[in-house]
Amino acid sequence: MIRAKKSLGQNFLIDKNIIDKITNTVSIEGNEVLEVGPGTGNLTREILKNNPRKVYLIEKDTFLSKNLEEISDERVKIFNDDILKFDENLLSKNKIIVFGNLPYNISTEILSTWITKLKNDCWFSDLILMFQKEVADRIIAQYNSSHYGRLSILANWRLNINKICDVSPESFSPRPKIQSTLIHFTPKKKFAEIKDPLNLEKITRIFFSHRRKMLKKPFNQIFNGNNDLLNKLNIDLNLRPQNLDFDTYYKLTIEYEKLRS
To answer: Is the entire prediction scored with pTM above 0.90?
Structure first.
C-alpha cells in the first residue's frame, strides 16, 4: 500500500471526473507532455490514453518513482528528481504541455521559479496546474482586490491565466483540509521587456511589505521621491500597493532597471 508523505505535501488525485477535466483542457495527441509529481500514476495513465508523443515524469519520491516503472510504455521517461533543481529546457526542443498536482508546500516556489527562468521563448505551450485554493486566488487576483499582490503580478507578466475549476478535498487521497483549484496558463506573446525578473520580485516585495500603508514610503525608498517619474506613470502616492495595476508595476521595474544600468 502506498502511503502519502506529509513532508513532501503529497495528496494523490483519485477523482476520475477531475482527471478527465484535466486531460481535456488541451489536445494531448501527438504532443510531448511533462507531468510533475505523478505520484501513483492515475493522471499519467489517462494522459497516455490520449496518445501523446512522449511523456516525461518528474517524481522526487524514490519509492513512487520506482513504482511508476510499472507503467510499461516506451513513450514514458521517468526522472527521480527535484523539480526545483531540474532544467526543463533539456527535455526537448519542442514545446511541452505541463501537468502538475503540485505539492502545496512548494507550489508558489515552482511557479515563481519557472517564470523567473523564462527566456523570450517559453519551453512550454501550456501549464495545467493544481494549487491550494488560497494560492490560486492570489494568482488570479486583479488589482484593487484583497488577494492581489506579488504572485498575481509576477504570474500575469508572462502568462495568460484561466481558472478551470475548484476541486473538493474528496477528490484526493488522503483528503487535504482545504479546497484546491485547477488553473490553465499559456505564454503571452507580448509582455513588458523586463531585463531581470528578479527585479520585478524586488519591486513588488518592497511595495507589498506594508500593503496597508500608502505608496509614498516604498516609492521614496526605491526612487528617492522622483516627481518626474510620478508624473510619467501617473501615480498617486496616497494609494496603496493593491491599487496599482499590473502594467504600472512592470513600468516601475523597467524604470528601476534604467537607474541601475
So the answer is: yes
